[in-house]
Amino acid sequence: MPDPSSATSKQKILLVEDEEMLSTMYKTKFEKEGLNITVASDGEAGIVAAQAETYDIVLVDIIMPKLDGFAVLKKLRELPQYKTTPILMLTNLGQEEDIAKGKQLGATDYLVKANFTPSQVLEKIKLLPPSAQ
Questions:
Q1: Residue 26: partners with Cβ closer than 8 Å, 6 or more residues away
Q2: Does the structure show a pLDDT above 50 at 132?
Q3: So what's the pLDDT on residue 131?
Q4: Could you tell me the domains of the chain?
Q5: Who's near 45: CB < 8 A, 6+ residues apart?
């Protein structure tokens, strides 16, 4: 049986998060685990980064400047290289209607930041199937 940590070690992750403290915390944790992580500080930067390079997993905050996470999710799902890529909403918006909207727009999963530590988010990522590129 292959070691699941080796599967994640080569994965490229895009984190679209405007709160610097959080993005630094996630970046540090993921890099310690051998993941290659790129951080975009707003929705527009996230789209630009996603178009410049193809990522294996995308984590998107919802409340951000320029473009909110729902708009980022919608735009990413319109790009051929992100049709099947796991895209996780990582946000503090935990209302049922927000979760439903995220799922409707194609989110693979919806994680409320307050309920998950970076280690728990990392565990979720490790459980994701590889994207069908």
A1: 15, 17, 37, 39, 59, 118, 121
A2: no
A3: 57
A4: 4-127 (3.40.50.2300)
A5: 16, 66
